Each structure stands twice: as structure tokens, then as C-alpha cells.
């Protein structure tokens, strides 16, 4: 469980997050959606303990998120994470040496699934291949919490679909709390259980994906359109 209580993050006078209170329940898969600059990455970095709130409390499990990444949490960051001079297998060995929860067996499976060549250097990988390698590295860890910030960045539309299917099989549903930020709303839909919409640093809407599908017959995109259209009218 991750609890955010009255979280505000200020950079100078600008508020990236403005009084956000939300509880991510254990074992559920969440999508954080929202336009550019709405605070998605800030909220992820905060849960990972890389950014500190100006006000409020972040609790991951029983612990308050610290400045270092909590050990039961894997974070796919939109920038950094990979060492250009390493080969893929050296990156895998490095992660294995750093994290006791890293499964070499899962990494081997993911190497095949992601169609990566273990002997290739990180600096020679395309953006899409780097994205796949990042996913391999975090999905190989057996953590309680998995934070994926823009996991599809750089992936072409043809492979996105395959990668989403991979996510479904590599996520431990019911056990791992997974939080994904993305602009690829339609592609991510099959993975999600809950969706949250951030706008200008605040949570504007929250839905259970199955409920809106079964009770209202809507996809997330349709739900978003209908929710915000109704608000604009009122
Ligand atoms: N280190 C920083 N210094 C100053 N302002 C920042 C910093 N990081 C983020 N911000 C500001 O906070 C706001 C939210 O940024 P954030 O990166 O969280 O948005 P986002 O929803 O992830 O955007 P995108 O979809 O474009 O990735 C933006 O206005 C951004 O300019």
C-alpha cells in the first residue's frame, strides 16, 4: 500500500503537485494519466523517494519514503538508469549484484521476449531497444511495488502492443502494486485495474476500469471524454 497524504511539491512558486491525497492499494495495477506537466513524473519520483514533498507525507508500505529508493520498490525512470558503456549482459549482471530480489531466470526469459542481443552495447541501442532493456531490468525484480514512468517511450506502435501483452504476463497480479504513467491510454488499457487523471498537480478523476467497461460500456478514453465533457458543460 502507498499512501499520499496532502502532498504538495513546489519548485519556486510553481506547484507541481497541489494537495494530493490518495491511497494505492496493495496488489492493484494503476495508470496515472494526464497532460504534459500535470505532475505524473513528480508523483512517481516522490513515491520512489527521489523527490521530497514540500508538504505532506508519502508512505510506502509501513515506511515513510526516504531519499533513497525503498528496497521493495523497482522504478523505471524516464531518464537515466542505463550506463552507455555497458553491454546488455553487463547491465543485467550489475542489477543482479545490486538487488537481491533480481531474478536471473526472469531476465533470461525477458531477453528472449524483448528480442535483445545480450552482447550489444547500451550506447548502440535504439531508443526502443533501450526502453525494452529498462523494462527487462525492472520486471526481473520481484518487488512489492513497481513504478513504471512512461514505459512505452520510444517504442514504435507495432511493438507497443506486444510489450503490453508482455507486461500482463510478467506482472504479478494481486501481489505487486504497479503504477504506470503513460500517454498511450488505449494501449495500456488491458493492463490497468484503476485509472487516475492528474491535471495541474491535482487528481481530477479516478475510476475502476472494469466498472466503467461493464457498467457503462466505456473504454478509458471514452470515459475520459465523457467525464471532462460533462464538467465543461456544468
Ligand atoms: N526539477 C524541476 N524543477 C522545476 N520544475 C520542475 C522540475 N520537475 C518538474 N517541474 C515542473 O513540475 C511540473 C510537473 O512536471 P512533471 O514532469 O511531473 O509532469 P508530467 O505530467 O510527468 O509531464 P510529461 O507528461 O510531459 O512527462 C511541470 O510544470 C514541470 O515544469
Automatic annotation (TrEMBL):
**What terms describe the molecular function in GO for this protein?**
ATP binding; ATP hydrolysis activity
User: What keywords would UniProt list here?
Assistant: ATP-binding, Nucleotide-binding
**Residue ranges of the ABC transporter domain?**
2-225
Family annotation (CDD domains): ABC_DR_subfamily_A (cd03230)
- What is the superkingdom listed in this entry's lineage? Bacteria
Protein name as annotated = Spermidine/putrescine ABC transporter ATP-binding protein
Amino acid at each position: 500500500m502507498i499512501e499520499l497524504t496532502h502532498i504538495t511539491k513546489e519548485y519556486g512558486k510553481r506547484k507541481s503537485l497541489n494537495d494530493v491525497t490518495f491511497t494505492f492499494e496493495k496488489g492493484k495495477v494503476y495508470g496515472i494519466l494526464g497532460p504534459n506537466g500535470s505532475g505524473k513524473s513528480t508523483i512517481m519520483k516522490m513515491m520512489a523517494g527521489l523527490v521530497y514533498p514540500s508538504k505532506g507525507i508519502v508512505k510506502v508500505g509501513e515506511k515513510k519514503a526516504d531519499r533513497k529508493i525503498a528496497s521493495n520498490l523497482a522504478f523505471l525512470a524516464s531518464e537515466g538508469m542505463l550506463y552507455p558503456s555497458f553491454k546488455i549482459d553487463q547491465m543485467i549482471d550489475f542489477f543482479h549484484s545490486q538487488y537481491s530480489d533480481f531474478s536471473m531466470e526472469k531476465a533470461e526469459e525477458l531477453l528472449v521476449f524483448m528480442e535483445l542481443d545480450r552482447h550489444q552495447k547500451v550506447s548502440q541501442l535504439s531508443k526502443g531497444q533501450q526502453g525494452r532493456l529498462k523494462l527487462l531490468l525492472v520486471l526481473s525484480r520481484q518487488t512489492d511495488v513497481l513504478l513504471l514512468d512512461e514505459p512505452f517511450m520510444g517504442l514504435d506502435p507495432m511493438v507497443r502492443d506486444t510489450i503490453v501483452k508482455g507486461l500482463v504476463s510478467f506482472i504479478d497480479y494481486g501481489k505487486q502494486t504497479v503504477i504506470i504513467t503513460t500517454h498511450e491510454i488505449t494501449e495500456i488499457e488491458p493492463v490497468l485495474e484503476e485509472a487516475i487523471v492528474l491535471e495541474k498537480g491535482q487528481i481530477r478523476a479516478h475510476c475502476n476500469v472494469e466498472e466503467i467497461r461493464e457498467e457503462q460500456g466505456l473504454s478509458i478514453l471514452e470515459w475520459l471524454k465523457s467525464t471532462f465533457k460533462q464538467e465543461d458543460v456544468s
